[in-house]
């Protein structure tokens, strides 16, 4: 079954400006600017004349098109949240015997992981553009990733996790690694 017309609205908060030009979205806020190209999606995106919300419309859409409609609206909401509050991922180092040593660069561009399962090899993980990595001051064995783009921050966390996978051992027994312990927008009290 095809639906003739379906539309969703995304509210634009005060202090944030959104520009929509041929399905390219540019969101500007107090923390910076995010740009996303959604030209591959067959939808109509219009900023209303009042300037307070964006209308995303699908004409003659199937169920998959309606699911894509919600996905596009969520992407826009994530961009708005990123330029107003930003995103923070906290990762914890878990080890049983060999303590994992993590060294973060001065500018937070990359980190080096040493002594994982007692290995001599140094693992270097580069952060994606716009993501800053740091060690936690209050909690031992914790890494904090901060950025505006949720996709970049989450992918950087996944790259760190992937670099510390246990090979050729029983993963039920060897639980060593670096895992995401907390994720979400940066709280106001920090």
Any descriptors?
190 residues, alpha+beta, Outer Surface Protein A, domain 3, 2 domains, 4-stranded antiparallel β-sheet, 3-stranded antiparallel β-sheet, 42% strand, Ribosomal_uL6-like_a/b-dom_sf, structural constituent of ribosome, Large ribosomal subunit protein uL6 alpha-beta domain-containing protein, Ribosomal_uL6-like, Ribosomal_uL6_a/b-dom
Distance between the termini: 49 Å
Task: Find the CATH topology of the largest domain.
Answer: Outer Surface Protein A, domain 3
CATH architecture of the largest domain: Alpha-Beta Complex
Got a strand count?
13
Number of spatially distinct domains: 2
Family: Belongs to the universal ribosomal protein uL6 family.
Protein name: Large ribosomal subunit protein uL6 alpha-beta domain-containing protein
GO molecular function, one term: rRNA binding
Organism: Galdieria partita
């Amino acid at each position: 079954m095809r639906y003739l017309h379906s539309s969703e609205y995304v509210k634009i908060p005060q202090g944030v400006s959104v520009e929509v030009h041929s399905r390219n979205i540019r969101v500007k806020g107090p923390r910076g600017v995010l740009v996303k190209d959604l030209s591959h999606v067959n939808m109509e995106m219009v900023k209303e004349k009042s300037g307070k919300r964006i209308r995303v419309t699908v004409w003659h859409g199937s169920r998959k098109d309606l699911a894509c409609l919600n996905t596009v609206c969520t992407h826009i909401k994530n961009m708005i949240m990123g330029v107003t509050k930003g995103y923070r991922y906290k990762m914890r180092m878990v080890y049983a015997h060999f303590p994992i040593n993590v060294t973060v660069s001065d500018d937070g561009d990359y980190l080096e992981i040493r002594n994982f399962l007692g290995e001599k090899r140094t693992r270097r993980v580069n952060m994606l553009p716009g993501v800053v990595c740091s060690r936690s001051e209050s909690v031992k064995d914790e890494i904090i990733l901060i950025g505006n783009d949720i996709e970049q921050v989450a992918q950087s966390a996944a790259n760190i996790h992937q670099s510390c996978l246990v090979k050729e051992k029983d993963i039920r027994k060897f639980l060593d690694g670096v895992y995401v312990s907390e994720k979400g927008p940066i709280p106001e009290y920090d």
